[in-house]
Amino acid sequence: MYSFQRLRIAIQGVVQGVGFRPFIFKLATELKLAGWVLNSSQGVFIEVEGEKDTLKRFLLRVQSEKPAHSYFQSFEASYLDKVGYSDFEIRKSQDSGEKTVLVLPDIATCPECLAETLDPHNRRFNYPFTNCTLCGPRYSIIESLPYDRPNTSMKHFEMCPTCLSEYQNPLDRRFHAQPNCCPACGPVVSLWDSNGKELATGVSSFDRVTEGLKTGKIVALKGIGGFHLMANASDKEAIEKLRFRKRRSEKPLAVMMSSIDQVRQECAVDDFEARLLLSSESPIVLLDRNTQFQNSAIDSSVAPDNPTLGVLLPYSPLHHILMSRLDFPVVATSGNLSNEPICIDENEAINRLKGIADLFLVHNRPIVRSVDDSVVRIVKERELVYRRSRGYVPLPIQLKKSTPPALAVGAHQKNSVGFQIGQNAFISQHIGDLETEESYSAFLETISSFEKLFDVSPDCVICDEHPEYLSTKFAEELNIPSIKVQHHYAHVASCMAENQLEGNVLGISWDGTGFGKDETIWGGEFLHFNLDQVARILKFHSFCLPGATQAIKEPRRSALGVLYETFGDEIFEMDQLKTIQAYTKSELKLIRQMMKSGFNSPKTTSVGRLFDAVASITGIRQSVSFEGQGAMELEFQTNDLSGKDFYPFEIGEVIDWRPMIRELVNDVCRGENLHKIATKFHNFLVEVILEVAERVQEPRVVLSGGCFQNKFLLERSIDRLTEKKFVPYWHQRVPPNDGGICLGQLYLKANNIKDEY
Ligand code: ZN
Ligand code: ZN
Ligand code: FE
Fold it and tell me: 150: cis peptide before it, omega within 30°?
């Protein structure tokens, strides 16, 4: 019975007067789906109910069989609980009262504009700023509403008579296309060296860039929402140079490929992934790589030891023109130093990126706000957004409850902010870790530009309980009531919000770090929600983190904490363990003192750190270059999909994982296969969820927090819960990581959920 669900689709685009609603009616009726389609000033909304597999087919067919003259500028789908429709109807638009005007995201180039750009006989041949009413930049160029040219960064360019006549002709594809322009009147590209000296301008810039990429140069390219750094993805030397200069030693890099055929040569692509790659949102899609690496055009340094690859297709004419000249894929990573926000201005880029890029392909259309590429993965044939930015932002997530305007300022890492206006939650683009001055000012600018765009001033502000987060401090200084909510409550709440859940659920909230109610570091929490309350009903046994935040960089520290908790002083003699070998005798002596006295060794229940500990004990990683690397590499070892074995644990007041560690250490010492160990560890976590669910007997189980970016953990938890007749819920449109926190903050406030800790 749980395979019966509701699919909700929100579409922006040309869907009026093109036979769209009759098409949906016919398709739904053919597939025997009940529900409705509704046309409103906020877009077209479709809800259908039926078997999961039929809904998935419906989703693909809406896209592939849509009427000839319809066009999707945005397409977002969520799977929700059924409400029990009896037939399919075309609903009357119920527009009444004031509606928030929606701002569209930046839209990938449409096929007609692409054809013109690549047609030598067209006046827009090789013109990188070609666009029309269907496609082109929106959110990244809008300064204020209404969306008219004088309110965009296109105001600096006056249309030539030909462009103006297109703009004024109701029969033209460019009728009222605000960013309309051409080579005679619009922005131009130029090529600069790293001192900002112009080397070329117009089309010839592309020739020089092509040449540069072929000869191992690193190119900073000003695109839609900011700068990309590009290098030939086949050229090991170039990639290594880029990594060294950008200070990004191992974190996987995304790759832009010229066509879906090229993608298929490198990766497995199913129908859902193909749809996403070619969509108007055009995100980076995380794909499984083909196993035959030897013929790959992608050098191993792009995503070292990684069975997945982040891939995107060209999404602006500028990218299309460049990619059409290259016969190799290119790395396309954000134009920034690690952890800083992406660069948007060419003069600033020269300053900030001059040590990284050799060539700068720039243009003179200002970018009003930075919008990174979004990152999406298909899990269980559904979208799971890891980073919600270009293509999605600023379209709202619709919530069940309407409230007075509220602002949520999110967390600290992967920060994004949210505004709730009525039933709509507007989630901002990815801002980044609020660690540098640049990211903090991007945070401030994002808030003020949202207030301006949506003409809203919030009645209250919601923030994290962590006293040291800059976002929290900011909230406290505003002159409106501020509400603090616990980090892990917000994780689960964000997942409840986007799945439109209310009332009783069991929430599993697992991540790296969050400030707990008892002022320790949480991260392995079991929460119970009812209509207006949340309680932490169970947690992982805690262990100490010698060196506190240093442990994030060094999994061996988490491992020492975990081993010490399990074996006590004995561990300092266990020389056969890689964790112990990673230290000198005197270092061990020092850390032993720290752990004994508790000095700079806070207690944690974090599952993220437990992953780190296991990565260290198994010898995978002693130190990492980005957070979660240990966990990621441990996940990659779980190719034993048939493995059902799991490590033992005990549940009392807490989840005691020490039996797991004892057996795991035993396995490691007798040289057990690493795939087996990794799978057994993941299965242990899944069985913990199962066991707790059986005890709590709450039918609905919500999975959230950064740990659920782990595909193996997520999929297996879903499968096992379903097997045992629980209903699992996980993320779709909003990330499970801290990028989703602001939505959870809004939900906790809107539903007035109090904690009864
Ligand atoms: Zn177009
Ligand atoms: Zn023109
Ligand atoms: Fe978190």
Answer: no
